[in-house]
Amino acid sequence: MAHRWGMAVDLDRCTGCEACVTACRAENNISTAGPDQAARGRAKHWIRVERYYEGEFPDVRVKFRPVLCQQCDAAPCEPVCPTYASHHTEEGLNAQVYNRCIGTRYCANACPYNVRFFNFANPVWDTPLNLQLNPDVSVRGVGVMEKCTFCVQRINAGKTLAKAEKREVRDGEIQPACAQACPTTAIVFGDLNDPESAVSRLSRSTRGTKLLEDVGAKPKITYLLRQS
Amino acid sequence: MNLEEKNKINDDLLRPVFQTSRWFYVIVVLLGVIVLAGLGSWLYQMWFGLVVAGIKWPVYWAFYVTNFVFWIGISHAGTLISAILRLVNATWRRPVTRCAEVITVFALMIGAMFPIIHLGRPWLFFWLMPYPSERQIWPNFRSPLVWDFFAISTYLTGSTFFLLLPAIPDFALIRDRTTGLRRKIYGALALGWQGTTKQWHRLESAMQIMAIAIVPVAISVHTIVSFDFAMAPVPMWHSTIFGPYFVAGAIFSGIAALILAMAVLRKVLHLERYLHPVHFQNLGKLLLMMSLLWGYFTFAERLTVWYGNEPSEMAVFWSTQTGAYAPLFWTMVFCNFVIPFPLLAIRRLRTIAGTVIASSTIIAGMWLERFLIIVPSLANKNLPYSWGFYRPRPVEIMITIATFAAMALLYTLFSKAVPLISIWELKAGAHPRPVLKPQMEEEVEGLWGTRS
Q1: For the domain with range A5-224, which CATH number is right: 3.30.70.1560, 3.30.70.20, 3.30.460.10, 3.90.1150.10?
Q2: Is B57's CB within 8 Å of A118's CB?
Q3: In the prediction, which pLDDT does B12 show?
Q4: B64 CB near a chain A CB, below 8 Å?
Q5: What is the interface pTM, i.e. ipTM, of the complex?
């Protein structure tokens, strides 16, 4: 059975610790921009924890929401790309082919979630970060777009392993870096085509909601609303 | 028209081609330095990456795309105005058309540079084109950027023909007055023109066909440019009004550019005899109509957004009405409507000076309009956490300035090669008298579309 990868994020469980952000950077070879360039909007965060504040000081309530590529089924970023760099895979992922990208940045404009990032300069890492790049993930050069891949390298590795052992991929076996790092298991990843998978069950929750659903992009990430 | 008059026209209009003053070199060097500075800035940007520009997350399109839309808009001066004036047989058009057609070709060339300048990897721009690649990869025909490629290349081809076709008899005129290499070049451009009745008839037919064909092409080009924005689900981009709004704005800025170019040519090349106040008056009336149309479109767009009260759109709306971009927005309203309207509506003010002032503010206002369509929407997209603010950096400003210099430079150089007023058309039409009202018989002819 073909896979259809999806994610559920329980906002009740998210503490805003940003472990997912750190894990994502390490896993996916996301270059650092440095404080000056970051202040100019050149930082790249495949996943970010959005903070929204409610109420007046001192009765402030903070709401956290991890936002990453929603891997939309009707992704606005895909049809606008003139070179097919941004395209839909058979497993429903929004793939970004770095080698095919010429940097029109149209996909980033079309994306309602602002989760696509541009490489303004060639990537640099301060030592010793340059010595711990992930060999499974390509390093992106100047002038191309990049974004969350749902850790496609881990998906492929998991599928290869399952195939070698002549079995189906088990639920929870494949985890993207953010889900793996989350101390409160707020982020759950899995196959939406398997009705018994954890992510399918959570996605059916009455608390489930999609981010900016009215835009009509059909995102594959379900956010479970806060009850408290 | 007697022979003496014809010789006078030849001498006056061919003078820039055969005589070159010291000022020409001064201007060319001055403009050339600015253009080179712009090219240098682009190389600098290519070397270091777009990190040197001001664009940022989430405002990924800014000055360059503004310039793209602006220059493609200016290009509508030409061909469209000239084609419409030809089709309605407005006889006062005769000294105006070529000035306009030249603007079109050069503005398109400059505008078409920007989709390449703004690329992250400009050296791979040809991936936008459908070329037979050994990997059999075609561009994505669903992408409005690919539509842009087709629209602009069609328009550039068409408007180049539209410029060169009616210049054939003038090329022949220059050919007959030159020797050596120049004679060869102009001879090639004149395509063996001898001025036979058959040739005149063919030229007239070809011009008629081109004039009809170029109008839908011009309208489709700016509609497709507007689709770059309207197709994306971005607040205040995703709008059905964008196609006609952009076309109207394009013609608006195009006429303004034409008036400015004509005023400069009139002074610099001493064409007072040919470019009369009546031409500025008539173009001023067209400009007034477009100003009203622009005001109407802007009002209609803003009112429907405000009344609809959709949250993500309202964020963009208020950022332009009262927020960070409000000073620019209200400057634009002043430049495009409040200042030009009285200057163009009151007959006493619709002089050469009046129309030039109005055109200058309109050029500035229309540039701002394009900026205000692009940037505030990107800066205030759906999720408030990802809002940002854009400021240009020197490299973007330099390249923008350089494009204006490039336009002036190309225009100056072109004036050395081709007379900027169509000599044969002027002779054919016995250029209009300096009266404000066209002659009655010309009006009747114009109405029925017969050729004079």
Answers
A1: 3.30.70.20
A2: yes
A3: 85
A4: no
A5: 0.93
